[in-house]
Amino acid sequence: MANQESRGRNFVETSTRKGTLDIRLPQPSDRLDQDAEHCSVLVDGEWRDIRFHDYDEIYRIPGLYEQLFHGILDCRSPDVIGKVLKEELQQDGFEAESLRVLDLGAGNGLVGEQLRNIGVSTLVGVDIIPEAQQAALRDRPNVYDAYYVVDMTNLPASIQTELEGFKFNTMCCVAALGYADIPPSAFRAAFNLVSNGGWIAFNIKDRFLSPDDTSGFATLVRKLREENVLELLTSERYEHRRNVNGEPLHYVALVGTKHADIPEEFLP
Ligand SMILES: C[S@@+](CC[C@H](N)C(=O)[O-])C[C@H]1O[C@@H](n2cnc3c(N)ncnc32)[C@H](O)[C@@H]1O
Hints:
The chain is an alpha/beta fold. The chain folds into two domains: 4-72, no CATH class; 77-266, Vaccinia Virus protein VP39 (Rossmann fold, 3-Layer(aba) Sandwich). Helix content is 28%, strand content 26%. It has eight helices and eleven strands. Helix 3 runs parallel beside helix 4 (110-117). The radius of gyration is 19 Å and the shape is globular.
């Protein structure tokens, strides 16, 4: 959405030294939950208001995702998930080269890049919007072996067959669960593409694992552990990024071993 007023009183200037785009964040006094956060970006001489959850718009502007979330808001999640997965692999004496990874909600490939850095050999991305795939191909053309634009809650049979053909032994999902993003049913569809004994590495906002969770993930994760569908090897609470007011947003990184498919009745 173009907005000539964005330079006005509702926005404050953030440092532009962390990248080449001119980005402004709302006044710290505005209390916004994560799915309502937004910024203003100068594109071709015009200020545009963009919600953080309008990923299509963000991915269309090269460098915006990286500059906004990683440069200004200090997002650490792709690094943290790469680190905790690597530590668990080392502890288990497992070579990263033998991982065949499904990256759920892959976005523009920042997680894929980390997975390549730790030595993963086979890597497939899936995301629900074509702009994510286009940005990954534009900005990180060599990261994914394949990248599917697909709704994991409604997987066409032909793509299900193709994905099964990769014989995944790992699923990663970073900064994509809950809110209006990936629901439990999509998580289940991706989880069930991984072979038993495989690795599951994901993160989730701490609130979505708490008793007052409404996303459905707290109940799902509890059942997965109780029924030993997922054996949790590590869980680490950490600062995912800052919000637009500069306050920390905490997530939990979880890595575990899959022992069985998630039955449909586990879904909320
Ligand atoms: C915050 S981005 C995270 C991207 C990447 N994992 C990262 O950490 O940089 C969340 C991504 O999840 C994707 N997403 C949302 N709902 C989805 C769904 N149902 N199936 C697949 N991807 C989805 C969005 O399009 C977006 O690219």
